[in-house]
Amino acid sequence: MSEWIIDGNYKRTIEIRLKECDTVFLFDLPTEVCIQGATERIGKDRYDLPWTETELDPEFKAFIEEFSEKTLPYIYELIDKYKNEKQVVIFKSREEADEFVSALSHLKNKG
């Protein structure tokens, strides 16, 4: 059995990926939290970028600021379309995600 994880919200391919997956984890975080996360990554080496960011790219900041209005409704529309076929977990905060992972860890340790 093949297993894989795809990260990202690439609007062009999201429906294709939703059709193929069995589980969806959506981080629907407040805009301020997303901008803070992007800002905190400035100056840090990342495995997914061949360079180190030295500032928050204005275009990327605008994408983050517009995401909940321009992209998120489409993502929710697709999740609603496939919700009966997929396990869907939506996090509204980083704390919710941490609690979810902690609960999984506890289950793993019991089993």
Short description:
The chain has five helices and two strands; from the N terminus they run αβαααβα. The two termini are 22 Å apart.
Report on the architecture of this protein.
The protein has 111 residues and is mainly α. It has one domain. It contains 5 helices and 2 strands, in the order αβαααβα. It has a two-stranded parallel sheet. The two termini are 22 Å apart.
When the domains are counted, the total is 1
> What fraction of residues sit in β-strands?
5-15%
> What is the succession of H and E elements?
HEHHHEH
Strand order of the largest sheet: 1-2
Tell me the overall shape: globular
**Main sheet summary:** 2 strands, parallel
Mean pLDDT: 91
Tally of strands: 2
Rg over C-alpha atoms, rounded to the nearest angstrom: 16 Å
Distance between the termini: 22 Å
Helix content range of the residues, please?
Answer: 40-55%
Q: Which structural class fits the helix and strand makeup? A: mainly alpha
SSE blueprint and pairings:
Layout: H1 14-20, E1 23-27, H2 31-40, H3 58-70, H4 72-82, E2 87-91, H5 94-110
Helix pairs in contact: 1-4, 2-3
Distinctive features:
two-stranded parallel ribbon, 2 strands, 111 residues
